[in-house]
Design goal:
The protein is of the alpha+beta class. It has one domain. Helix content is 17%, strand content 43%. Strands 1-8-7-2-3-4-5-6 form an 8-stranded mixed sheet, covered by helices on one side. Strand 4 and strand 5 form a beta hairpin. The chain is globular and about 35 Å long.
Length: 126
């Protein structure tokens, strides 16, 4: 999928949680999907790009993308008072993810991981 903002994505296969938690994850997920192209501009990402994975932990979101050249990157996005801000830009290197601009730590193993299935639906993987 080439990435352009679209409304109405929903997160599927979320483990049993209170409905308010599911609603919060869907709202956060849609906020990231809708604002990622604008946030990615802060780090001069090469376009076009495709979002491959999203990790969510608390108010931090790691959005992994692949550009037209096949290069992988991650943008760390922080949510504060319903506003999203790009904090750090990582690129894939031989030794793992390398922070090249901004600030931030690597994604935690505790973060919820989402990937697209064959039908283009976002599925929680852990």
């Amino acid at each position: 999928m080439k990435f352009f903002p679209k409304k109405g994505y929903t997160v599927h296969n979320i483990p049993a949680q209170p409905s308010s938690q599911v609603e919060k994850e869907n709202k956060d997920f849609n906020g990231i999907i809708d604002t990622f192209p604008l946030l990615a501009q802060a780090f001069d990402t090469k376009r076009p790009f495709e979002v491959k994975r999203i990790w969510i932990q608390d108010n931090e979101f790691y959005v992994e993308y692949q550009n037209a050249r096949g290069e992988l990157g991650q943008i760390l996005i922080e949510k504060n008072n319903d506003k999203y801000q790009a904090k750090g830009h990582f690129i894939a290197s031989e030794s793992g993810w390398e922070l090249i601009k901004g600030e931030g730590e690597l994604v935690s193993a505790k973060a919820a991981l989402y990937e697209k299935d064959a039908k283009g639906q976002w599925i929680r993987k852990n």
